[in-house]
Amino acid sequence: MSDTRGEEKLGWLGRLKRGLSRSSSKLTSGITDLFTKRKLDDAALEDLEDLLISADLGVTTAAKLAQSLASTRFNKEVSPDEVRTALAEEAARMLEPVAKPLTVDPARKPHVILVCGVNGSGKTTTIGKLAKQLKEQGRSVILAAGDTFRAAAVEQLQVWGQRSNCPVVAKDIGADAAGLAFDALQRAQQEQADVLIIDTAGRLQNKKNLMAELEKVVRVIKKLDEGAPHDCLLVLDATVGQNAHSQVEIFRDMVNVTGLVMTKLDGSAKGGVVVALAEKFGLPVHAVGVGESIDDMRPFKADDFARSLMGLDG
């Protein structure tokens, strides 16, 4: 059993750094190899871009990061630490506009959050963690098990519901997801709940069916509240790297994605994809997950993330 006191002592920054260690060690060792007693000339810049691309920062972002470094240090001898610090500062600048915590509007009863993402992205776990955190803030939360075709997803949500003491609205496997969402919203309105979080299916094999289902869920809940859903979160698994781009595009076509949650950063050497997504889509990144426990998901902070990604201390 892990030492929970040790975990507590580690704190969030320590967990984030540890969670991003696979990504940061690749960048740190690569930058050290490149810039030990070497001038920042064109060849070095090209090598740096290649390294950043290999860490899933994407071609455009890698070029911008390299250029920002060149603008102040071109043809000078630079140390690996200087390079990492400069890159972290520039990455933080790119991330700052998207680092927005998820805020619940107390005027809405309930504030409706629709959560989507492909199966296996960590969607249901994210909902559970979010529910528990909202409960700890003193809010009343109802969960809706809208991924009605996967028994495991429904059961997992019910377990999280018990853990966080949140009621879960569920139906038989294969039930109509839109009908379930409608019932859940009706109940949340009657009980004056602060938040309703709706899980959804993530089967991309048949995109057309999934799109029709998600559109129907949105249409049906709008009958009860024109402004709902107030947030539509897309949960992305960092281990998919560049594939996250196409997932954002696919789900944006289906629903109005308002923000992202990145999970499984601890299992991936592809943490750089967060910077690439911020640069390309400009969607708010509400939270990042670096492990299984409830405290391993926290609001996203640009500077903390950028420094951890480059293997620098907080």
Strand content: 5-15%
Helix content estimate: 40-55%
Globally, the shape reads elongated
Radius of gyration, in angstroms, nearest whole number = 21 Å
Would you summarize the structure shown here?
This protein is of the alpha/beta class and 314 residues long.
Keywords summarizing the entry:
two-stranded antiparallel sheet; 314 residues; 12 helices; alpha/beta; 13% strand
How does this structure look, described?
An eight-stranded mixed beta sheet has the order 5-4-6-3-7-8-9-10, with helices on both faces. The chain is about 50% helix and about 15% strand. Helix 10 links the parallel strand 7 and strand 8. The longest helix has 18 residues. The chain is built from twelve helices and ten strands. The protein has about 325 residues and is of the alpha/beta class. The N terminus is likely disordered.
Layout of helices and strands:
Blueprint (H helix, E strand, L loop, with lengths): L3 H16 L1 H14 L3 E2 L2 H13 L4 H15 L3 E2 L1 H16 L15 E6 L6 H14 L4 E4 L6 H14 L3 E2 L7 H14 L4 E5 L7 H18 L6 E7 L5 H12 L4 E5 L9 H9 L3 E5 L7 E3 L2 H8 L5
